[in-house]
Amino acid sequence: MSAIIDKISFAIFAVAALLSLAYLVFRKKPLIRIGQRLVLIGFVVQGVGLGISMTKGGYPFLLESADSYIFSAWVLAGLFLLIGLKYPLEVAGAFFLTAILVLYTLAHFTHEAYGGEAGLMNSPWASIHIVLAFLALAIIFLSFILGLLFLFQELQLKRKKIFKVFEHLPSLEVLDGLHYKALTVGFVLLSLSLITGSAWAKSVKGVYFFDDPRQLWSIIAWLVYAFFFQARFSAGWRGRRGMLLSIIGFMVVLFTFLEVRHA
After folding, report:
1. How far apart are CA 141 and CA 183, in angstroms?
2. Same-domain check for residues 259 and 134
3. Which residue among 57, 80, 113 closes a domain?
4. pLDDT of res. 101
5. What CA–CA distance (Å, rounded) separates 180 from 230?
6. What local confidence, expressed as pLDDT, does residue 262 receive?
7. pLDDT at position 161
8. Which of 5, 17, 85, 13 is nearest to 48 (CA)?
9. Which parts of the chain have pLDDT scores under 50?
10. Which helix (H) or strand (E) holds 257?
11. What is the Cα 180 distance to its own chain's centre?
12. CA–CA dist 3, 49 (Å, integer)
């Protein structure tokens, strides 16, 4: 049942993405209004699917990468709807919906079971860590999109050539503020996922840190973002330099999720 709902939700978000792209070309308001309603419908439908899956499977949940990436996509869709209540994101919708579809695609092509090792899931920290990690992924993905939009908007202003299709992007100040807030929340969640991951390791391995590549790369990603905040407050790294640093952090996070496996 939940697999069917996942496919339906993907189709809804895909149509919404096509409408957002069509809006960039034809600039017809009805296209974006229909697209936004579809995002809301997709968010509700996928929420029902996740609820059914978690109720049916019980605790612990999100034991496979497919479910976890779909959870991140659902969170990102909710964040897009929430931010859109206050800020004009009609133009940015194509970026957000593309990111949502990327997460669905990862869910389809990745097949990692987090409970593959016997006894690994016999810990109250298991799903807590997984939920926090994929919440962090969704919000860090959000900050990545906002960083790209900032850099694109800044490039347009420097060249004094605003493409008509992108003239309604939020201002640099708004994008910088949203990026900072998103990254702050993402960094807190990443920190909590590291803490709960260490507690999980302690409960099943007997030690807080062990020879685990994913744990090591997660710490590297955390250090990149920690440097971002240190540079922002101490050295005044705002604007482009801060955005580029946060994008590097996102690349490390994405590499960690996609290419690094637990030992």
Report:
1. 9
2. yes
3. 113
4. 95
5. 13
6. 58
7. 66
8. 5
9. 118
10. helix 240-259
11. 15
12. 8
